[in-house]
Amino acid sequence: MQVTDVRIRKVAAEGKMKAIVSVTFDDEFVVHDIKIIEGQNGLFIAMPSRKMGEGDFRDIAHPINSETRNKIQDAIFVRYEQMNEEEEAKKPIEELESEDAEDATEAPEEEL
Predict the structure, then answer these.
(1) What is the distance between the alpha carbons of residues 99 and 69, in angstroms, rounded to a whole number?
(2) In this predicted model, what pLDDT tens digit does every residue of 94-108 receive, in sequence order?
(3) Full-prediction pTM beyond 0.90?
């Protein structure tokens, strides 16, 4: 089984949940709603789950062994890092463009 696609949707920068992920396996099967969460020891993934009657949560889909979990987690984190690097690369360009736009909208001061 191979991870063939990872799609990440970032959520608000504040809070512990950083993104929602969909992972496709062998171009044939997809699992939605995997969460990237910031924990005390760094980032980890939480598999999709459902709240049970007693208030605890039970995974809907999950890997059976740690090797598979690590394979999924590694693929997600590689894509997440790529996404963060792409955003950082765009940031200076966007900041320059917004500064240029601000300069164009400011009216020159009148001399008295």
Answers:
(1) 44
(2) 555 665 555 555 555
(3) no
